[in-house]
Amino acid sequence: MGTFYFATSTKSSAKSMSTFGYRLLHQHLLRKKSYVDGQWVSAQNGKTFDVFNPSNGANIGSVADLNETDTNAAISAARKAFVSWKKTTAKERSNLLRRWFELMVQNQNELAKLLTTEQGKPLSEAKTEVTYGAAYVEWFSEEARRINGDVVQSPSPKKEMLFIRQPIGVVAMITPWNFPNAMLMRKAAAALAAGCTCVAKPAEDTPFSALALAQLSEEAKIPPGVFNVVTSSRENSPKVGKVLCEDPHVAGISFTGSTAVGKILYKQCASTVKRLSLELGGNAPFVVFESANVDAAVEGAMACKFRCTGQTCVSANRFLVQANVYDEFVGKLNKRIAESLIVGDGFEPGTTQGPLANKQQAAKVDRLVRDAVSKGATLVTGGKPHPQGELFYQPTILTDVNNSMEISSEEIFGPVVSVVKFNTEEEGVSIANSTNKIGRASCRERV
Known about the structure:
The protein is an alpha/beta fold. It contains 12 helices and 19 strands. Helix content is 38%, strand content 19%. The strands form 6 sheets. The protein has a 6-stranded mixed beta sheet, sandwiched between helices. A 5-stranded parallel beta sheet has the order 11-10-9-12-13, with helices on both faces. Helix 3 packs across helix 4, helix 7 (237-246) runs parallel beside helix 8 (259-270) and helix 9 (294-306) crosses helix 10. It is globular, with a radius of gyration of 23 Å. The model is unreliable at 1-22 (pLDDT under 50).
């Protein structure tokens, strides 16, 4: 099938394996066109956009830049395919999904390399994502056989009440750049198992993972039009999203991303009263009480904060620590960061922290840190871009954070720990709830 080599950083480094050649990918998984109605298609106007490796700025390749017209064609393909796909048996759908899953397992190393190249996360994290992304497909391949109905007792002796579950139609899914493999599979596998057809719009920073999965869906013999992938640039993405939201033939939207974009999609879906699933941002507190095992709290903090360089929706955003263990927690966390976090290219052995996803994200993280310091926060460690490269940021701890700082109310999405001191349990809970952005929470307390 041929091979494709991704360029590595040209910076000299004792750890560097080589300038070229160790990022090997079977070329049949490197797709640069969108996948619509079982065909690999370019934008009708011929436009493309470039995708860059966030670790070194290398141009990975140019991808089809679809617009509104192209998106309408993908919706039409999914709508046409739905006519026959909805009539397939649960066993048929289950077998196809199982075959898709098996192909993902067979190609997991190549998918992980591709993911690290376009997203930047350490290869070990990429392999983990590919594994549980495939697990979603395996799970729903089995759940497809268990889409059962109900028989309910009727209030009338002359009637019987039977309830059956039917697919809703075409489902659009807009996926994020932080987990470009797993988030797409979690959405698409569920929809296909239920008998729906899909139009997927991956993030413009990470389209190659979605296209590789489309290639594997083709190899799994999933029928044309059932699973479609439309790619678009940052400039075209709002237009494509608007079409997906407002087209009356799209029955549902599933979106994972920022709260700001989620609000826009919510409004755009209102005109067609779509079924809407939104997984948005948050401002999650991590609360450490004085009764906690501080060592365990530090380990929990490391896991909650630094996975994917802090770029996850479940990352802790605010660390609320009771006064009696405040200094101990900060000191031990600072030591743990220094000892265990290694910033670098995701392909370098030992790397635990890759780059931020793009220039916008890097600028946002730096802005939040500078704003906090200017308003009285204490910089314990880090606090500026990392010399590894433009999109790398130093693991950072800020103390003395208060509600006047943007970092206390904005989702950071970066390797920054903002620590707030509280005295009583009531005060800690009050601070945790003093935000209009709801997020996941973690509490550390010895029981």
